[in-house]
Amino acid sequence: MACCCGYSEPIDTERVVVVAPLTMAAPIKVVVTGAAGQIAYSLLYQIASGAVFGPEQPVYLHLLDIAPMMGVLEGVVMELADCALPLLTGVLPTANPEEAFKDVAAAFLVGAMPRREGMERKDLLSANVRIFKEQGQALDKVARKDVKVLVVGNPANTNALICSKYAPSIPKENFTAMTRLDQNRAQSQLAAKIGVPVQDVKNVIIWGNHSSTQFPDASNALVKINGAEKPVPAAINDDEYLKTTFVSTVQKRGAAVIAARKMSSALSAAKAASDHMRDWFLGTGDRWVSMGVVSDGSYGTPRDVVFSFPVTVSNGKWKIVEGLTISDFARQMLDNTGKELAEEKQDALDVCKD
Questions:
Q1: Which listed residue, 27, 135, 169, 297, has the most CB atoms within 10 A of its CB?
Q2: What is the mean pLDDT of each run of 10 residues along the chain (354 residues)?
Q3: Which of 29, 62, 193, 210 is catalytic?
Q4: Whether the model pTM is above 0.85
Q5: Is 220 annotated as a binding residue?
């Protein structure tokens, strides 16, 4: 599930490492899969420090990875202890999915087989669908029925769909896929183009799949300039840029990071996962955020695929933003990414029959 090496002797997965005494509210159990990998290495501190669930919510971390990674995971557990984080009440490292998912309130499904050189997207899907089928079955058996599941491992949208399919006792709306990284990338690009702080841009939308067919949409975005909000398209005043350079830059950003860094975008992915789960638990206020959720057919999208929409979140429940105007250009982009998701869904279901 994770790509690391240099591990030592396997650790006892039955062991529970207690890091800090119980404080304040009762702790919630949070699982991170692929816990010895790069994204988790950045993500775990954010969860345990209070950046995700709030400064008064203790957490008990369940760390899942494959058996050969237990040595590496032991080092991660040591580092979590050495951080001396007041909100971290305990850590359970394990290679057993049922142990990892037991009674969890939140699940970050990060671990997945990475795409290797020469591997087609369908090959990646075939390998990872089986992982997420197994994890869905484990969630169904032992997790809390109100668990909030965020799928980060790619292909994230279809992995989330399969995970939900094999956890029928958990509501479909409790399974989401991460497109927040794409939203953060889009927001950053627009802020740089306009010349404002990134927090002054809001309501950028990512439609569809977390793939190169996604549609980063600035048509409803707002920017604060000199204390007043105005539409981003008016502030940029370059429709051609918003339909071409902006879209392709966001679509290809992950590949650009890999080309420059020789590794995938782990730091920004971890930040996006934190943002996604924080907003799901604590709410979005007047901002829209992009989440891959089970489609109800809104905006002419295929039903029963996990499709990224603009949503608002209140009291732990997401709701698709309604009533937006879809231009002819946007219609074409939504149809293209929807078609890919429908094809991925069928490919995944075929794999599950094997």
A1: 135
A2: 40 51 77 97 97 97 97 97 97 97 98 73 82 96 98 94 97 98 98 97 98 96 96 97 97 90 92 98 96 98 98 97 97 98 93 80
A3: 210
A4: yes
A5: no
